[in-house]
Amino acid sequence: MSFARRPSSLLSRVALACGAALLFASGADAATPTPQNQPADVCAPLTHIVAATDFRQLSNESSAQLPGVSNTDDCRASPHSYECHWRAHWQADGVINDPLEELGADIAACFPSVVHDVNTPVRQHFIVTTDAARRVNVTASVQGQNELRLRVTR
Fold first, then answer.
1. Which residue range is the domain that position 28 belongs to?
2. CB atoms closer than 10 angstroms to residue 98
């Protein structure tokens, strides 16, 4: 009988030690500050861009500047389209492995009424229906290694 109790006691100790190690590791992760090379939130500028009545006005508006876009030369605008390109300056975050997937996930999360109809390794396309019942096309694509392009049209 004492032999049967010993493994269960040992098993309990191992389980307790593993649980304590996991708790310590998760606490250490929570105390670690967010790395600086994580992507910034794109929802605020993206919703501003999609809601614009004339994309040409966006070059003068700081609220329309996408994270990673260093200056207005990286973006082109016409009355019905807005296109920017930039190099992604963040690493994989352990959940999403590449900048295009990260940008696509952000686009999908930014809008309450969005259809994600194309999802390939090099291109993601969304149709956003705005409050004014306008349909806006949002396309994110890869132009080179970590080089992203965003095109918004209506």
1. 1-32
2. 16
- Alpha-carbon span 138 to 104, nearest angstrom: 10
> Residue 124 — pLDDT band, cuts 50, 70, 90?
very high
pLDDT tens-digit map of 104-120: 999 999 999 999 999 99
The three-class DSSP label of residue 47 is helix
**23 and 52 housed in the same domain:** no
- The domain total for the chain is 2
Contact 110, 94 (CB under 8 A): no
Residues 28 and 47 both lie in one domain = no
How far is it, in rounded angstroms, from Cα 13 to Cα 50? 57
- For the stretch 59-104, pLDDT in tens is 888 888 887 777 666 899 999 999 998 887 655 555 556 788 888 9
Q: Which amino acid is at 38?
A: Q
Q: State the pTM of this model.
A: 0.69
Mark whether 123 and 149 lie in a shared domain: yes
Residues 65 and 136 in one domain: yes
d(CA 12, CA 129): 55
Same domain, 65 and 100: yes
